[in-house]
Amino acid sequence: MIPYRDVLRELAREALAAVATEPRLERKRALAAHALEDLELAEGLAELGMPASGPLARVAQEHATTLDARTEEAVLRRLTELHVVQERHAAELPVRSQPGAAPAREPWIEAGVGADADVEAAIAEAEAAAAAALEADPPDPGLARAAAEALERAQTLERDRLGDRASRSA
To answer: Which pTM value belongs to this model?
Structure first.
């Protein structure tokens, strides 16, 4: 059986690898944030020695039903967290049914298209951190955090820039 932590590490690895090729800033940011959450969960689960494999949210929920809440509270808490996080990840980054389809939640910003130098620098910093995180085995959570924070900064800068442009034209 594959341990939960190995599955989470692989999910993080795939998300970090996708950061460089994803053109949309919001999706880049979500991928990096999800990778960081998965790595942090993997570290917590490793401490508990969690077994099992399969679709994580479902398997975690099924595993949780077999536990005695009085004696295995820490395991139950981690499995509940795992279930909630994976369900949220699936909702935030659904598989696209059509290539190029815009996400439903918010207008997207394509990296490199009309972005200013500060945004582009933050994106480049994030992509470099994500690539560096992948060089470690397992992926480095500190570098995943650096990628997530740089993309959050890029998104904030871009929203501020777009907001300033909209207020000037009004």
So the answer is: 0.70
